[in-house]
Model the fold of this input.
Amino acid sequence: MKASITTWKDEVNWLGRRFLRQWDLQIMVIPAIVLIVIFAYIPMWGVLMAFQDYNPAKGFLGSKWVGLKHFRMFFEAPEFWLIMRNTVVISLLKLLVAFPAPIVLALMLNEVRHAAFKRIVQTISYLPHFISWVIVSGFVISMLSVDNGSLNMLLQTTGLMKEPVNWLSIPEYFWTILIATGTWKEIGFGAIVYLAAIAGVDPHMYESAAIDGAGRLRQLFSITLPSITPVIVIFLILSVSQILNAGFEEILLLTNQGMNVALRPVSEIIDTYVYRVGIENYRYSYATAAGFFKGIVSVGLLVIANWIARRLGSSSLW
Amino acid sequence: MKRTTEDYVLDIAIYACLLVLAFVTLYPFWNSLVISFNDGNDTAAGGVTFWPRAFTLENYRYVFKDNRMIHAFWITVARTAAGTFLSILFTSMFGYAMAKRGLIGKKFYMIVCVITMYFSGGLIPSYLLIKQLHLMNTFWVLIVPGIISVWNMIIFRTFFQGLPDGLEESAKIDGCNHLSTFFRIVVPVSGPVIATLSLFTAVGHWNAWFDASIYITNSKLLPIQVILNQTVRSILAFESSTQVSATKQEFLLGLQSVTHKSVVMSTTMVATIPIVLVYPFVQKYFVKGVLVGSLKE
Done:
């Protein structure tokens, strides 16, 4: 008994001495861990205020615990289903359009024989990735402006329309504008990974296919696409886990921080709702509950997507 | 090899698609540039697309005379410089230590990091934390919360693990500790990875607006993106206002040769051009960086 205590103490002492001896390594780690604990872990713990009636004056410890009250309020709120619909529909549209777009671009670029042309198009295509959403939304607003926006000018000079349309004020067009903008911004950057995957395909496969008389389209569908499927699956899993992130920044910016009330029935998603209710209306606990609900569903979706991918026998995240 | 009809049709379709894409991507940039160099009243008459009809530098003069804009521009420059430097410094040191086999507590540190990649407290708890730390309305709120990027740490770690063991031997023999080995031996051979991640971090800082928009109310500390957004918003409010007559009149009264839209466009250009100028030169680095990142997945 006594012996084991000494060894345990020795162990700690030994570990402590070793820890002190590598102070020069630990000193590189500790500032980072402290920052992570403060800015990532304290907020995680702060999520518990979703179960409180958080009162800033009383602080976290002094506020009253109310169980699932805020979750119940959120689920019963008249806007709940609208918000869920918008979040899911916008994400699904993104998955349907914005997700395959870079794959199509990569496949098209791969067919281009002129190296210079290919490089120029590629360079142009990832320019928008580096531009802030503030500027991109400014472009969209300018292009779609009712007051001499380029789109209205084009439609009017070609005679397709007589009167200019205020595109950004009509709810029916909002999803199209949002998805088109997102695709426009990320198509080129997203294609980089797929192009690299295509570059890794064994050229012999194309040669033998050509000898067997396969045309380029046939080669594309029978060789290139199957070869990059593992990469596509991984990115698909990642996108599925992002399904509740319908695009907070861009929606906030394209709807004038939610001030464009006409668009709210189609534009309000969980994130913008949390922002509006929490930051603008100071309903901290309620907004945290809504955000927490989203977080749980997201992690659940990631696990399910990964499980399905593993079941189908293709690549998975873990 | 003989080209078949399929080849010709395919090529025409692909080249056409790519040309349309290139045009659609460039047009908004070009059109904004043109409007920023065009007389405001002339722009308001419509039809300005590919070339300035009434060339003027007035819009830029207006922007550069506006102290608020100049100030915001320098805030952005300062946050980009300080934010990128501190982030890369602390994140690379972290990645270096995490690449060392003998590091005590390595598993624990890694778990601490990985959890943050899947879970987060969300907007409101983070906001309240910043409030309680009295970071609201300070310059550092734009920098400190983002210093450590777990993602970048992993990329750094992977890179450092790939360095040959012999590299650090001579430094050890000379009696250098890990800190000085890192700065004297490792940093000088890590140019590409440092350049890539610095670029991404810098672009992130340059483009950031949301943090400033919720944490900063003091107009002296607002970065250019927020000022730009405020200007765009006032246009939006103007366009979507139903009682057009009152607003429009007020708007027209304040209007000289420099209109709202042309000012927005020249500000946009001031905020965009540094990035547009930099990115073609660092292209090869970031293509590599993206690949390193995706391989880790």
